[in-house]
Specification:
The chain has 488 residues and is mainly β. The protein has a domain of 55 residues. Helices cover 10% and strands 34% of the residues. The protein has four helices and 30 strands. The strands form eight sheets. Strands 8-9-10-11-15 form a five-stranded mixed β-sheet, with no helix packed on it. The protein has a four-stranded antiparallel β-sheet with strand order 1-2-3-30, with no helix packed on it. Strand 28 and strand 29 form a beta hairpin. The longest helix is centred in the C-terminal third of the chain and has 23 residues. The chain is globular, with a radius of gyration of 24 Å. The C terminus is likely disordered.
Length: 488
């Protein structure tokens, strides 16, 4: 249980890694096998399930570390494939089992690594992993981001499809004249070819390009060509790519939900980023990071001023409230959980200030638990762990919306003396009391039947972690998790 309830905390700019034990709130920072490696990385990340940590070292090797077994492996030979290994913009991602690894070098070179049959990370005696590197070709005429496009945002995801099997997608978001471009490299059910022909030097992928005019995003949308202009994140199912398009004025900042599989775009608002005065400008109101919840129902976000928000899938920000650990806020669309500390003003300037280049600055990020409704917000110094209500699911959310809309339609029908031709939701013809009774009957039937999914109840015994720190623990809620705020 202790292994299953631990999470990796990553600080890429500061090159720090810690392990957080969720039920107790304690963090372990001294990781003997990993700390020396992290200090020599160009980039690093963790798998979606939180089990593995992987990174690209300065000597051209890749390392993989199993968090629960404390086993590290190395993959050699990557530096010989890259034209310019001194490139600073690297992106790395891996499948949950680390059998496939994707690495992009800038905006021009893309590589996939596949583990050979019979290889396993759990074999402790062997330090190297055998596999094959494949370069992904880019078709002639495919529009990719220019080398100087600093606004480019890269997001990738490995996912399982019932019909296609193991799939992979990588998307790049960038500006092109008056159009937003999303270039996607899809591998739909084709990862199996690495096992069939390991001598294949180049893998040919069918790229796709989605173009969306700026004017359809916002009537006064202006392209921004600076670092952090776009922030993107894939849902774990690979169906939706969320793109936050930051603007000079917070009232123009939009959220795009892109489906590369169907080439469709849904535009949503960002509620002025919580700013009442729409004339204010500056990077402090930009979206800093995004993360999907484990069920892909909500998108958690944090701004550069430390305010956090929760966005339903394909929707706009909803009002949220917090309680516990003396953090009682809301309800509001944006909550200042980690207020930003500004030494000098940077209003109106969209370029990163000297303050943002300070290694000791606040670095706002958000992450989610791979299987539980838990969101972690951080400013680089403090981590706030927020637990969403377990009963909030897609079914209950839609049921509530249908019930509210049915009540409103019934009220309109009574006021205007209309004849309703559609059956009432949850048999509202019995009246409000009858509808509640019907909902109760539905809930009882669900409780009596076998549940499809169950959350593991965490043990409170995970508080004996050495070399760790913990903040004050208050009470344990009815779901088995302590209300706490973990320091880092």
């Amino acid at each position: 249980m202790q292994e299953q309830e631990s999470l990796l905390l990553l600080d890429a700019p500061g090159k720090r890694v810690s392990v957080l034990y969720v039920p107790s709130g304690k963090t372990k920072r001294r990781l003997s096998k990993i700390t020396p490696l992290v200090e020599q990385v160009k980039c690093f990340t963790s798998t979606r399930n939180g089990r593995y940590l992987l990174g690209l070292l300065n000597n051209g090797e890749l390392f993989i570390w199993h968090k629960d077994k404390d086993i590290s492996k190395f993959i050699a030979g990557f530096d010989r494939l890259v034209d310019d290994f001194s490139e600073e913009n690297f992106h790395i991602n891996a499948s949950d089992s680390c059998s496939h690894i994707f690495v992009s070098v800038g905006n021009r070179q893309f590589f996939l690594w596949a583990m050979e049959k019979g290889e396993t990370i759990l074999r402790d005696k062997v330090t190297t992993l055998k596999g094959t590197w494949h370069e992904v070709s880019v078709p002639t005429g495919m529009e990719l981001p220019p080398l100087n496009a600093r606004e480019t945002s890269i997001a990738s995801v490995f996912y399982e499809n019932v019909s296609l099997g193991q799939c992979f997608q990588c998307s790049m978001v960038f500006n092109s004249d008056c159009i937003l471009c999303v270039a996607t490299e899809p591998h739909r059910g084709s990862l199996k070819i690495f096992y069939e022909d390991i001598n294949l030097p180049v893998f040919t992928a069918e790229w796709s390009l989605l173009q969306y005019p700026f004017q359809q995003m916002h009537a006064e949308f202006e392209p921004v060509s600076t670092l952090g202009a776009y922030v993107s994140a894939y849902s774990s199912s690979g169906q939706v790519l969320a793109v936050a398009a930051n603007q000079r004025f917070p009232s123009r900042t939009t959220m795009l939900f892109v489906s590369p599989l169907t080439d469709t775009v849904l535009v949503g608002g960002m509620g002025n980023c919580g700013v009442s005065n729409v004339t204010k400008t500056g990077r402090q109101y930009w979206v800093s990071d995004l993360a999907w919840t484990s069920d892909n129902l909500f998108l958690a976000g944090i701004l550069k001023n430390g305010s956090v928000c929760l966005i339903p899938r394909l929707g706009d920000p909803v009002a949220i409230a917090t309680d516990g650990c003396s953090v009682t806020m809301g309800p509001s669309l944006f909550l200042p959980l980690h207020p930003a500390i500004f030494v000098s003003g940077n209003d109106g300037n969209l370029e990163p200030s000297a303050e943002e280049c300070d290694p000791m600055r606040q670095q706002f990020s958000v992450a989610t638990h791979p299987s539980l409704p838990i969101v972690l917000f951080s400013d680089g110094f403090l981590v706030t762990v927020a637990q969403l209500p377990v009963e909030v699911t897609s079914v209950t959310l839609m049921r509530g919306l249908v019930l509210e809309s049915a009540k409103y339609l019934k009220k309109l029908a009574a006021q205007e003396n209309l004849d309703m031709t559609v059956a009432d939701a949850y048999r509202l013809s019995r009246g409000q009391k009858g509808s509640k009774q019907n909902l109760s009957e539905v809930a009882n039937r669900e409780k009596s039947g076998k549940k499809r999914y169950e959350f593991e109840m965490a043990e409170v015994s995970l508080n004996a972690t050495n070399e760790s720190e913990v903040s004050i623990i208050e009470t344990t809620n009815r779901f088995g998790f302590d209300q706490f705020g973990a320091t880092w």
